[in-house]
Amino acid sequence: MNQLNALERIGRTGLKTVRFDTGVGGIQEYTQMDYAHMLAGLSKEATAWAMYAYSNTEDEKSLSFLTARLSKIILRKYPKIPPKSVVGLVKITLREALMYCPGDSTRKGCQVTLKCRAMGLPRRTFYNHKISIDLATKTLLSIIFSLESQISSNLNDQNIGLKADSDALI
Length: 170
Prior knowledge:
Elements: H1 3-12, H2 32-38, H3 44-54, H4 60-77, H5 86-99, H6 112-119, H7 123-128, H8 130-169
């Protein structure tokens, strides 16, 4: 994925949190291109996660990129999980990560039937590998949390710079 192309798409698509940055009178404090500039220093994985999670468009390229990268990690770390089902596990975990807050301790997760269907496994095979699947899910969620923290720290750093620039103009 080309970094500049992804950032241009972020800048042109509306972000899902558009109304949170309005000040008094409903004028936006930052434009969409400012948000794209704030995301400029991210890794490819974090940029793909930002495109997938925060833009209003369905970005299949970012989903495919994340799925391929995370599937390789899970295959190496948990060889007991059947290889044909790892892609389904990654996709269902990414969608599950969008449903819940990162620190939510009461998260139920998706049902076993849905996970089995997404992974292409019968229930018996799923339950035979349940410990490995649960560990892989926790690993994926920790990777997603690290991507989120990279995005938020980059936004905070860039936000401080933008505030200083706007204060200097006044």
